[in-house]
Design goal:
The complex is a heterodimer of chains A (316) and B (226).
Chain A: H1 3-11, H2 13-34, H3 36-73, E1 76-80, H4 86-97, E2 102-108, H5 110-121, H6 124-128, E3 138-143, H7 149-161, E4 165-169, H8 172-214, H9 216-224, H10 229-272, H11 284-309
Helix pairs in contact in A: 2-10, 3-8, 3-10, 8-10, 8-11, 10-11
Chain B: E1 2-10, E2 16-25, E3 30-35, H1 41-48, E4 56-61, E5 64-65, H2 71-79, E6 81-84, H3 96-107, H4 111-124, H5 140-152, E7 158-162, H6 170-185, E8 189-193, H7 197-203, E9 206-211, E10 214-219, H8 221-224
Parallel strand pairs in B: 3-8, 3-9, 6-7, 7-8
Antiparallel strand pairs in B: 1-2, 1-4, 4-5, 9-10
Helix pairs in contact in B: 3-4, 3-5, 4-5
Bound molecules: adenosine-5'-triphosphate and magnesium ion (MG).
The site of adenosine-5'-triphosphate has 12 residues of chain B, from helix 1.
């Protein structure tokens, strides 16, 4: 290159960078368009591979909500002995409120219990006929959402040992089973997600690799006229990125379709729980995360596929 | 500009393609390399373009010992060397213009300027009006000229041409050589491999004669007439 050309090229470095990338982008689009069937197949397979973890995630989110709804219902019902007075009940409630695992303690008087029972069961007149209120004082104890299950069950055991307490109702074991189930589900989702991500990388890698092989001559010519390895590789990386992104979009569409298909049965299930479940649709964030991951996986696949081949620019 | 010092090249499983070859070309000098088929002409040009590396000896281009040029440097080196290949090496599914523009794309030249310079180069080799044709639809001679246009379009410091006129009629061959000589006048060092003695006599430049990989004669331009 002559002196004038060199000065000009130094000045135009960012512009040159941009031109090189624009050219690569154009080439990669050309590539994807040139093989519509191959592109569509790759996108379909990779889209499916990505839609699965996303659907798992959707299920997971709702299982977690489900657990929370059930967890919120979880309360220790502490029935005091018949002989306990209001003062004693209030004192115990005060002590319990100081426990870090406890969120709230509600005191129910025997009278309140009785009227609730009367209203609920519809046999008020019969109860009213009783000479004495047979119900004890009850402490309704709600654990903090953050409290460990073990802390709550320890508390229940302690209360059972308390001489003022007649009975402790604890829904903990059910909660423990649910937690174990959601934990298991989460782990399965992570493992499958990792495997499917690997599959996605391989799918794009294979596609880009066959593209590179069918263009070996072209790559050779580019190398002969002075293209750097990065320059030669760039269109393939963009193609991988594009394939990944398209697959991500396909996966999002699939999952949205799944949501639509499940909307009616989910609403029914929710209604049978009195609307307390409130199924959640996926928010925008996980969808965007998926798109970003998909693009990255595509790029990675292309990068792996192109690394070995393009080292061949070396002379003998 | 180009210096060979005791250069030998042996391809695996063959006898030496080049044997202890030494010569030097000054900047803006033009020379022919000639010799029988298999004498080592293409090999000599490939060593300068870093398509091959010598088995022994040193090749220096523009003051740089090519043994020191590693990976990244290779692409950069090739950008200052324009090469016309014996077997064209064109992109058959791209238009003539796209092929000619390729070195400019690689060098990051803006599109408008690329088009302008590519058209000028095509004009010079007599391919005006064929910009949008595909190389597969061209005659061998026309393909060869696409390769020539591609080699000159980036105005390289060194121009290497391997049998550039093998498929051209004598008239056109002389014109192409005149074109190369023009490049010499703007400072480009030109080395042309050919066994066309008629052409060598017409153009009257220095001639390196190879025989079985050895430099057996080095005829200066003034001696060629004789
Ligand atoms: N890639 C290679 N592998 C092995 N041997 C080779 C290779 N390239 C060339 N040769 C051998 O090296 C010797 C010189 O070859 P080269 O291509 O340089 O000759 P040439 O003078 O260009 O011949 P031609 O006029 O036919 O083009 C020949 O004997 C050839 O067989
Ligand atoms: Mg040859």
């Amino acid at each position: 290159m002559n002196a004038r050309g060199q000065a000009a090229s130094r000045r135009g470095a960012p512009a040159r960078w941009w031109r090189a990338h624009r050219w690569a982008l154009g080439q990669s689009l050309l590539r994807l368009r040139e093989r519509p069937l191959g592109t569509a197949l790759t996108v379909a397979v990779m889209g499916l591979a990505l839609a699965l973890p996303l659907s798992f995630y959707l299920v997971q989110v709702n299982l977690d909500r489900f657990g929370q709804v059930l967890g919120a219902q979880q309360a220790l019902n502490v029935f005091l002995k018949q002989d306990q007075t209001q003062a004693q009940a209030t004192a115990l409630a005060r002590t319990l409120r100081a426990d870090p695992a406890v969120a709230t303690v509600t005191l129910r008087s025997p009278a309140a219990g009785l009227s609730e029972l009367a209203a609920l069961q519809g046999f008020g007149p019969a109860l009213a006929a009783l000479p004495d209120n047979p119900l004890p004082w009850v402490l309704v104890l709600r654990p903090r959402a953050t409290a460990a299950l073990a802390a709550v069950s320890t508390l229940a055991t302690q209360l059972r040992g308390n001489s003022a307490v007649a009975l402790v109702q604890d829904q903990g074991p059910f909660r423990a089973r649910l937690d174990a189930l959601t934990d298991f589900g989460r782990r399965v989702m992570q493992v499958l997600g990792a495997l499917l991500a690997l599959a996605a990388v391989l799918v794009v890698g294979a596609s880009v690799r066959s593209d590179i092989q069918s263009r070996a001559d072209e790559i050779h010519v580019l190398q002969l006229v002075g293209a750097s390895a990065a320059f030669v590789r760039r269109p393939y990386l963009y193609a991988g990125l594009g394939l990944g992104l398209l697959s991500g979009v396909a996966a999002v569409i699939l999952v949205l379709m799944l949501e639509v298909a499940l909307a009616a049965p989910a609403a029914q299930l929710d209604a049978s729980w009195g609307g307390r479940l409130g199924f959640a649709a996926l928010s925008v964030t996980p969808l965007l995360v998926l798109l970003a991951c998909a693009a990255m996986l595509g790029w990675l696949g292309a990068r792996i596929a192109s690394a070995r081949h393009l080292a061949a620019g070396e002379p003998n | 500009m180009i210096r060979f010092e005791q250069v030998s090249k042996r391809y695996p499983g063959n006898a030496n393609a080049l044997e202890t070859l030494s010569f030097a070309l000054a900047p803006a000098e033009m020379a022919f390399v000639t010799g029988h088929s298999g004498a080592g002409k293409s090999t000599l040009l490939k060593l300068i373009g870093l398509l091959e590396r010598p088995s022994q000896g040193a090749v220096t281009v523009a003051g740089r010992n090519l043994a020191q040029v590693r990976r990244r440097g290779i692409a950069q080196h090739r950008r200052m060397v324009g090469m016309v290949f014996q077997d064209h090496h064109l992109l058959l599914d791209r238009s003539v213009q796209a092929n000619v523009e390729l070195p400019l794309v690689v060098a990051g030249v803006p599109a408008e300027e690329r088009a302008k310079r590519a058209r000028a180069a095509m004009e010079k080799v007599g391919l005006g009006g064929m910009e949008q044709r595909l190389p597969v639809r061209l005659s061998t001679g026309e393909q060869q000229r696409v390769g020539i246009a591609r080699a000159i379009v980036a105005r390289p410091a060194v121009l290497l041409a391997d049998e550039p006129t093998g498929n051209l009629d004598p008239q056109l061959a002389v014109e192409i050589m005149g074109l190369f000589a023009e490049f010499q006048s703007i400072g480009t060092t030109v080395l042309v491999a050919t066994h066309d003695l008629f052409l060598i006599k017409r153009i009257r430049k220095r001639v390196l004669v190879l025989d079985h990989g050895r430099l057996v004669d080095d005829v200066s331009a003034t001696e060629v007439a004789a």
